[in-house]
Amino acid sequence: MKKSHLFTPGPTPIPPDALLAMAQPIDYHRSEDAVALIKDVLEKLKHVFQTENDVIFLTSSGTGAMEGAVANLLCQGDKVLVIRSGKFGERWAEICKAYGVEVIPIDVTWGDSIAPEIVEKHLTLNPDVQAIFATLCETSTGALHDIEALARLTQSTPTLLVVDAVSALGADDLQMDNWGVDVVVSCSQKGLMTPPGLAFAALNQRAWEAVDRSDLPKYYFDFRKAHQRGLEGSVPYTPALTLLTGLQCSLNLICKEEIHNTIARHNHMAIATRTAVKAIGFPLFATSPANTLTSIRLPEEIDGKAFIKMMREKQGITYAGGQGDLSGKIIRIAHLGWMNEYDVIVAISAFERGLAEIGYDIPLGAGVAAVQEVFTKFAN
Ligand code: PMP
User: Fold this and answer.
1) How many CB atoms lie within 10 A of CB 314?
2) What is the rounded radius of gyration, in angstroms, for the C-alpha atoms of the chain?
3) For ligand 1, mutation pick of 139, 163, 293 (most atoms within 8 Å of CB)
4) Taking each helix axis from N to C terminus, what angle separates 205-213 and 223-231, rounded to the nearest 10 degrees?
5) Which of 3, 97, 106, 283 is the most interior residue, by most CB within 10 Å?
């Protein structure tokens, strides 16, 4: 008998209540029950986004909300700054280019986080940029970016700050209203503990004004349509209603726990994981690691791809590997969503066992002991 454990930074495990809800027969999306469901979900999302602004949802993966943000906020001939510190920062630039927007890239070594002073310099040199595209947690490296500092830079300028919180929403703090972030996008299959297929965007007043000015082509991802219909508990097109029923259950869990406690739980899991990795003797890849996941730099003699394959096939443990140039060189362990300290113990003990299995000489149990110590300290 093989039991599977999913430690990838999306999709993440789904809570049993949400699984059960999604097993119910499908309903009509224009029924009164569906209207109530959509209204409830959109209201509860505000708590997770830490905003009083309306949140909209789209039937797509997270990239749909990223594309929607570009298509809805910008005009032909616009110039933007894009922080590229990994695969997902690169994606912002690719989408902007696909829409003919001029991109001024700010490149950051993978694993590092942007120094706000560098963004400040770029803003001073290019005061006419319409937006800065940033990423809260760059999932390809595990690095966290200081969005609060970036918002301090943009707040007093006409430049919008657009943040990809696809992986980190609900795990790393993002106080949209308090910090003055203009646009936040996210999706269902990560911190929101729901299968893939729903994307979200929250926009503040000045972002909606940019939407009114935008002349880039859009149809399915037209934010104004999604917004107007959403306010009535409706949708412009057939939504992934089944996913919305699951999402409602997962949101109930976060609202009950309260978002600041949800983020604290993720922080504890992240600290325990990082401490364990160091106790095992491996370096962390990110210089400023996120709560969402931990990226571990592997010693050269370990083939990360083969290790991940072996762990999945033999142990039923799924970790994520490196993307692009990092393929085979790092392992990414998520502590995200429907997880608590015992999931971290499983992730770390399996990592130790796996290393022993491939003949890598490590002190078995050092990582698990570190995790136990960290959690015991937090509990007292
Ligand atoms: N941005 C970030 C930070 C992500 O982690 C991901 C997914 N790993 C995406 C964007 C893309 O999301 P999706 O695959 O849901 O389109």
Assistant:
1) 12
2) 21
3) 139
4) 130
5) 106
Q: Which residues contact 85 (CB under 8 A, 6 or more apart)?
A: 107, 108, 109, 110, 112, 113, 114, 135, 138, 141, 143, 145
C-alpha 168 to ligand 1 mean position (Å): 10
| List of residues 6+ apart from 115 with CB closer than 8 A | none
Closest C-alpha to 181, from 53, 56, 88: 53
Kindly give, in sequence order, each residue whose CB lies less than 8 Å from that of residue 261, ignoring residues fewer than 6 positions away. none
Residue 345: exposure state from Cβ atoms within 10 A (0-12, 13-18, ≥19): middle
Q: Is 164 in the pocket of ligand 1 (CB under 6 A)?
A: yes
Phi, psi (5° rounding) for residue 7? -120, 35
Report the nearest-CA residue for atom 13 of ligand 1: 62
Contact assessment for residue 248 and residue 36, using Cβ atoms and an 8 Å cutoff:
no
Contacts of 137 (CB under 8 A, 6+ apart): 143, 144, 145, 165, 167, 168, 171, 172, 290, 291, 292, 293
**Domains of the chain with bracketed CATH:** 5-10+259-379 (3.90.1150.10), 16-257 (3.40.640.10)
166 vs 5: CA distance, rounded Å: 22
pLDDT digits (tens, 9 = 90+) for 311-364: 999 999 999 999 999 999 999 999 999 999 999 999 999 999 999 999 999 989
C-alpha torsion 135→136→137→141, nearest 10: 40
pLDDT digits (tens, 9 = 90+) for 154-197: 999 999 999 999 999 999 999 999 999 999 999 999 999 999 99
Length of the chain in residues, anyone? 380
Instruction: Give the contacts of 200 (CB within 8 A, at least 6 positions apart).
Output: 45, 49, 55, 56, 57, 58, 65, 185, 186, 187, 188
Q: For 214-348, where are the E strands, in sequence order?
A: 293-297, 317-318, 320-321, 330-334
Is the CB of residue 27 less than 8 Å from the CB of residue 241? Answer: yes
